[in-house]
Amino acid sequence: MGLRQNLAQFMLLVAVNALVGGTLGQERTVLPLLAGQVLHLDLYTPALTYILAFGLAKAGTNYFAGTLSDRYGRKPVLVTGWIIALPVPLLLIFGPSWGWIVAANVVLGISQGLTWSTTVVMKMDLVGPSRRGLAMGLNEAAGYLGVAATALATGYIAANYGLRPGPLLLGAAYIAVGLGLSVFAVKETRDHARLEAANHTSAHADAHGELGNREIFTLTSFRDKSLSSVSQAGMVNNLNDGLSWGLFPVLFAAAGLSIDRIGILAAVYPAVWGAGQLVTGALSDKYGRKWLIVGGMLVQAVALGMIALGTGFGIWLAAAILLGLGTAMVYPTLLAAIGDVAHPAWRARSVGIYRLWRDGGFAVGALLAGILADAFGIPTAVAAVGALTALSGILVAVRMRATDHQRAG
Hints:
Organism: Arthrobacter wenxiniae
Main location: membrane
Order of helices and strands: HHHHHHHHHHHHHHHHH
Keywords: Cell membrane, Membrane, Transmembrane, Transmembrane helix, Transport
Structural class: mainly alpha
Number of strands: 0
Protein name: MFS transporter
Pfam families: MFS_1
């Protein structure tokens, strides 16, 4: 157990998660524009149904991914996730109505729940407790740099060749490569978790780390102050991401920005988010999780305020950078905090429950942002979500126990 001892397999999983992120990134620039310019949806709430569908499907699958990976092993769950993704590009390319796009995102959400959740758990298995923040930083950096690079590439392709099919062929290539690597190169990691469990102590388990699924759910969601604080912050964080995914391209297009400039803005946020995690994950190992999470939520709130009040490419570019920085402070740190508290015997299930809440934020964000944008306009919707983000950070400051790499509670 350890990063150095498992470096080759760890870096392979980093590459696999970059492909997982790229599969998601194929939509970031294209679909919000496809809704209005090709399929002629006039209201924001119906146009955001694909994010609602994606969030609900991914959130639910996250929960089952943890349970299934504990029962059957990590690799079978990862491979299954890639197989499920195979029809997604075809549905997006040939879908004649918005219902097809929504259906594609249900399938994509299920796939992402299985693949991304499993790469998280597998890296936790490999590195052990002392480098968990670094591991999560590398994992999430790879995923969101994949999102960013693909958002930028699809923006360029769409500007030169149209919204369909060109940008979406990139996603098809990612799925083929990810499936091949997962089948032929990735190795099972569940035995590493069993080794760690044999030498682990926890405040929330008996001598064998045995808790039922219901007990793990209530601990992660409500009872444990650290775990529940992390879960609500994760939900609000992804609420922000759902907002940015669904409404920012529309806001920028309404201001007269070209598709390639919209693609730049759509890419900068996840690029800074992704690259920043290379630093913030390791920082959380050294200095603890809590205050990085609090600070990150407050930085995101400021960035959303800038987007709501600002106009023009320059201010929006600065806000996108700031939003990415705040998210980078939070994202790997939240996952590492879950790994700190959860016993290895039920850590995969606790991660799945956290990711259930976190990715439920996509669905909440789609509904909230759509309703507010239709009623009051996009800037008001963005400002309201910014206020909610600040409140989430304050809640973490008040409720979460300070953490280090040995223990989060």
